[in-house]
Amino acid sequence: MRLLARGFTFEFPRPVLVMGIVNLVADSFSGDGITEIDAALAHARELVAQGADIVDIGAESARTNRAALPPAEEAAQLVRFIEQWRAFGIRDSAFSSVPLSINTWRPEVARVALAAGGDMLNDIGGLPTDENARICADTGAALLIMHTVGTPKVPHTHVGYADVMRSLDEFFTEKIALAENAGVPREAILLDPGIDFAKQRDDNLRIYRAIERLHRFERPVLLPVSRKTVIGDVLGLPPAERDAGTVACITAGFLRGAQIFRVHNVRAAVQSLRMLEAVAGRE
């Protein structure tokens, strides 16, 4: 299995990939937002030094108790980071070898950010139309399709599922077809079950127990495990104290074949994954 993201190619099976998070916002739920571009770049470089294989940047918080930024403001913040990152990469190949993932759901933002040099679109909106897929097809960017229900920035605590894995199965069947019909090659698609997005505690735990069911799509599965609400629900801890719970979720996902993990604490994720791979004989 292969994942294509513009000039980047990842061949699977391979060591598990770690996606490091850079939040270009003042109100990140985990308290790690950085709005000053130089500081955000320094943080991204540190994530790469710690072993991040992909850097995911977002300029809009997914928190539902905050109003959405104007699209032009979100796009401008992303472009400032991307342009500086690309300039830095010209001088240092360690950073030009790491793809940039753009975390947004709004097509007008995705179009600008991918044109500026993003390699992957992390669409947290559930791909309600084919517009973001067409943007990826036009630019050669990879498309991360995340399962969710409804509009981002709106609480969905009322949503329930008779069978959450069946919902994921039907959703990804539909959305992969939508993306391919829009021109996205299947090798440029990866899947995210959307932990915490329009899901309750037990829905999230069922996904962790049965994530291997998504392998039938023969696309890489990304688990966004880091400091999630479900960890807080189980352990009764605030986001800043959920890293041990995050490692437990990484372990659960690893044992069920997830290929990519999106995290804040890259060092802990990389170390835990390399140890898990050693124990499993997958070094």
Can you describe this structure?
This protein is of the alpha/beta class. The protein has one domain (2-279): TIM Barrel (Alpha-Beta Barrel), CATH 3.20.20. The chain is built from 10 helices and 10 strands. The strands form 2 sheets. The chain has an 8-stranded parallel beta sheet. Strands 1-2 form a two-stranded antiparallel sheet. α6 links the parallel β7 (142-146) and β8 (189-192). α2 runs parallel beside α4 (107-116), α4 packs parallel to α5 and α7 packs across α8. The two termini are 18 Å apart.
Key phrases:
283 residues, alpha/beta, 8-stranded parallel beta sheet, two-stranded antiparallel sheet, 10 helices
Task: Give a summary of the structure in a few sentences.
With 283 residues, this protein is α/β, with parallel strands linked by helices. It has 10 helices and 10 strands. It has one domain: Dihydropteroate synthase-like (TIM Barrel, Alpha-Beta Barrel), CATH 3.20.20.
Topology overview:
Layout: E1 2-5, E2 8-11, E3 17-23, H1 37-49, E4 54-58, H2 71-91, H3 93-96, E5 100-103, H4 107-116, E6 120-123, H5 131-139, E7 142-146, H6 164-181, E8 189-192, H7 201-210, E9 222-223, H8 229-235, H9 243-255, E10 260-263, H10 266-279
Parallel strand pairs: 3-4, 3-10, 4-5, 5-6, 6-7, 7-8, 9-10
Antiparallel strand pairs: 1-2
